[in-house]
Amino acid sequence: MIDFLPRTVLLRLLAVLAIVLAPHAQRLPLWEILLVIAIGLWRLLATLRQWRAMPRWVRFALTIGAFLAVYAQFGNFAGQTAGVALLVVMASLKLTELNTRRDVMVMVQLMYFILITHFLFSQEIWTVAYLLACAMLITSLLVEANHPDAALPLRASLRLGGRLVLHALPLMVVLFLLFPRIPGPLWGLPTDAGASQTGLADDMAPGEIQSLIESDAVALRVRFNGPVPPPEEMYWRGPVLAHFDGRRWKAGVRPAGGGATAELGTPAYSYEITLEPQRRPWLLALDLPSRIGLPPDATLSTDYQLVANADVKERRLYQLTSHPHYRLQTELPEAQRKVFLQLPLGLNPRTRALAQQWRTQGLDDAAIIQAALAMFRGKDFYYTLHPPVLGRDGIDEFLFVTHRGFCEHYSSSFTVLMRAAGIPARVVTGYQGGARNTFGDYYLVRQSDAHAWSEVWLAGQGWTRVDPTAAVSPQRIEKGIGAALEGTDDIPAYLDPSRRSYQLRALLEARWDWANAEWNRWVLGYGPDLQTEVLGRLGLMDWSDMILALTVAISLVLGLLGLGLMRQFLPQRQEDAVLEQWLKLRKRLARAGFEQQAGEGPRDFTGRVAEGRPDLAAAVQAICALYLRLRYLDAPDAAAQRELAQAVAALRTR
């Protein structure tokens, strides 16, 4: 094989490399993006203008400098993003010494490897479609690199590359279904996986939950196995917060002893949750989850918060059973009572005075709760995404001055009021509600459904949920955040039904999310358990059956591919439309008793037919003349061939 590298191949390689690297631009530092672009432009100009090769010392200096710059940027090379950044910059530096076909082969292998790294950041449907197209482009370059002469036509190389990739797809499907799956995520790296995910934090301050409302990102998907709870009971329990410093709520330190026990009532709801990665350990659950059937790597805390053993860095699928009606921890130890009555000293005096006033009026705990809710209903309190900024005594300012806030303002102020009145209380964060996707018959909970509510401890009843937001904006609980903000300037564009594109967008988003949900369930979630279930339906009950089926399937696929390739070397059948019409005429005349003899020409044959069947004489002689002209005199044209076919079709021998 000669080692000459056509300029066309170099230009195509640059174009394919740019397409392969493009999705990584959003996660690379700016200096590296500019460096890759500069090297690509230099290679392009050097190819077009036939510049000399870059000096070796310059290439060496660029390599060392890029290596050190990546380390300075990320502090290591082991992380997901840092490793990809190093790979991308080294692949671009390979362009500075791209001269032979061997160099092209090295670049092709590098691009295949870079292609795989995209799955470290996204495994969505569009990613797979994009990377499949990239694989076809890279394979077409591989065809070019193995072509010894001048560059192939672009259409030919793309067709060959696409054909090779399509030939590999059946084998890929067989291996995906039958090859033994390993537990855990295939593409997750523990160093920085999921770092870009957003969601609930383990603390809460004014303005933090309301910032999530601007996001339409998916938090979780829920599929109920049977009855579905009403919207006002769809509270998805997350972090429970007990310590308050005057502005921010945190989980705090719980005293030992006195673990929570729950008496679960009816009805019970069984469901399956697909939780999006959030890089935090908690698993969302419908309030209140049962301890029976918990995921094996998760536990219920003393606050009945479901917590995994490790951060959720990949999509999680788990099943639970919950009971919206319950009595939680009817006995509260004194040490825990003190924790749930804690308030910072010297802050919010007007709130404390109001709570003490209710107590001195002789109101019991239940009456104080109702008095606080009546205050929220009766005064000019507003539910808004853009409340004013609060100062040092933020609870006082909210309750007595601004009256404007979001769910964290209402839950925080209500909890402080309860503690000031001597009622143990805490804040619970999570999500509330969910929109039903009719295409997949499941419920979609977005980040915009983030919510905060309160729990108070009452003698004989235990921890009881009280949602002060429902007193101010009942629509938020019954119909969702979109209904609560409808008609206001606060509503995000994607929640505003008054926009002309709302219905179309909602329809398209529902279909697309259903497709993503099925993709997550059957492809990304195809782990050991699901594989065992699927193969069990096919009668493959153990490892020996699976390995046998895998061997047979691979052999069958490879055999079919081999037969397909062998067909390319078989003699090709020559298509002759004129001769085909003559053979049709012979078959018709044979049915009428006239067989063309060996050595008998077309004129002699049709003459004999004309003597035996005078009624066919004119037709067969005209067909014979047209056939001989197209066969031996004129170059066949489409109009004459159609005329011959029509004449043969019109011949009636009976």
Write the topology of this structure.
Blueprint: H1 7-21, H2 30-49, H3 56-74, H4 80-93, H5 101-117, H6 125-145, H7 154-178, E1 203-204, H8 208-212, E2 218-224, E3 235-241, E4 243-244, E5 249-250, E6 262-264, E7 269-275, E8 285-286, E9 298-300, E10 306-308, E11 316-322, E12 326-328, H9 334-339, H10 349-360, H11 365-378, E13 382-383, H12 394-402, E14 404-405, H13 407-420, E15 425-432, E16 435-437, E17 442-446, E18 450-458, E19 462-466, H14 468-472, H15 474-478, H16 481-485, H17 502-524, H18 528-537, H19 543-566, H20 577-591, H21 602-612, H22 614-633, H23 638-650
Parallel strand pairs: 13-14
Antiparallel strand pairs: 1-5, 2-7, 2-17, 3-8, 3-15, 4-5, 6-12, 7-11, 9-10, 15-18, 16-17, 18-19
Principal-axis shape equals: elongated
* End-to-end Cα distance: 66 Å
Q: Could you tell me the mean pLDDT?
A: 83
- Rg on CA atoms, Å: 37 Å
Number of strands: 19
- Tell me roughly what share of residues is in helical segments: 40-55%
Report on this model:
With about 650 residues, this protein is an alpha+beta fold. It folds into four domains: about 5-180, no CATH class; about 205-255 and about 265-495, no CATH class; about 510-565, no CATH class; about 575-650, no CATH class. About 50% of the residues lie in helices and about 15% in strands. α7 packs antiparallel against α19. The longest helix is centred in the N-terminal third of the chain and has 25 residues, at about 155-180. It is elongated and about 130 Å long. The two termini are about 65 Å apart. Mean pLDDT is about 85; it is low at about 185-195.
